[in-house]
Amino acid sequence: MAGTGGTAILLLLAQQGGVRADIAEGTLPDGSYHCEAYLLGLFLDLGTITIKDKVYSGPTYGGRAAQGYNYQIDRNGELAWLGPLGGFTSGGNSISLTQVTADEDKDASFDIVMRQPDGAFTAATCTIRPTAG
Predict the structure, then answer these.
(1) Which of 5, 45, 77, 113 has its CA 20 to 30 A from that of 12?
(2) What gap in Å lies between CA 104 and CA 101, rounded to an integer?
(3) Beta partners for 56?
(4) Structure pTM?
(5) CB-based burial of residue 22 (10 Å sphere; 0-12 exposed, 13-18 middle, 19+ buried)?
């Protein structure tokens, strides 16, 4: 997405005030979050971010182990990554915003808005995968 598309995403996320999850504890439910973006009519797999307590790792591709880093969530549900985030923060990419969209154990999710080196924005959604059991 380029130009106004990226701005529209930021405005949409900013307007979700009534929809945001209540992040009373400052953490997301532990688990593996599958991340994907919808671009040019296709869903693109962007890997899996694993969350345990206040530590995240990934995104991973194909099950590789990744180093863990801390994260923080403010009371508005904005998530701050306190370390690198794979392709989201490499090759000139940066994170513009990560917003928690749900924090229940079975449907926890967050959206990541990434700014690309050319100034375009890409939005990805990361959703917890159900655990076996």
Answers:
(1) 45
(2) 10
(3) 51, 69
(4) 0.79
(5) exposed
